[in-house]
Specification:
The protein is built from six helices and two strands, in the order αααααββα. With 185 residues, it is mainly α.
Length: 185
């Protein structure tokens, strides 16, 4: 656990925040490189490559710190070794990003970045499960997937709203994707 009085912002939260900013900077730069050409595309690739170095360093620190801060992570990996796949996906995506940036394969680099983000998010979820919001002081006060779940009626209503809502979101995504397909001037 983080030493001393912890609150909403402590050393671990700042470290994760830095890693998140670098992750999104790389991902966004790769998107710009994919969707543009010329000087802007080159600058986006260069920026992604520069941010990648900081990303690797921050992710190594976050990973090492996570085992110290979240004891459930080690327990989860011992009892559910398949969870290491999430960590391996994140690592593979990060390594592939760099290789593909150097090869100037923008679409593949962007997809590798997406893979690394999915792996990182899955690793975080795996590491805290079954907790949603762990309590630092009293584990019995943690919110878990079991004690924070809505009732059956609420979940069924949510499902009825989710299905048409997701159909609208997918339709919007398809429209926007077609509208802005290809390189933008």
């Amino acid at each position: 656990m983080p030493a001393g009085q912890v609150g909403a912002i402590d050393w671990y939260t700042l470290l994760v925040g830095i890693a998140a900013v670098l992750t999104l900077a790389v991902h966004g730069s790769l998107w710009i490189a994919l969707k543009t050409c010329g000087d802007l595309q080159e600058r986006a690739r260069s920026f992604a490559a520069r941010c990648w170095n900081g990303l690797v360093g921050s992710m190594l620190l976050v990973t090492a710190s996570s085992f110290a801060v979240q004891p459930n992570l080690s327990r989860q990996l011992r009892t559910q070794p398949w969870g290491a796949v999430c960590i391996l996906l994140a690592m593979a995506g990060i390594v592939a990003e760099r290789v593909l940036i150097r090869r100037r394969q923008d679409l593949a680099a962007f997809l590798a970045s997406g893979l690394s983000i999915a792996g990182m998010l899955a690793s975080a979820a795996f590491g805290v499960f079954p907790n949603l919001l762990p309590s630092n002081t009293m584990p019995r006060f943690s919110l878990t997937v079991y004690n924070a779940a809505a009732g059956a009626y609420g979940l069924s209503v949510a499902l009825y709203w989710f299905l048409p809502g997701m159909a609208l979101a997918i339709g919007y995504f398809a429209f926007i994707y077609r509208r802005f397909a290809g390189k933008q001037a």
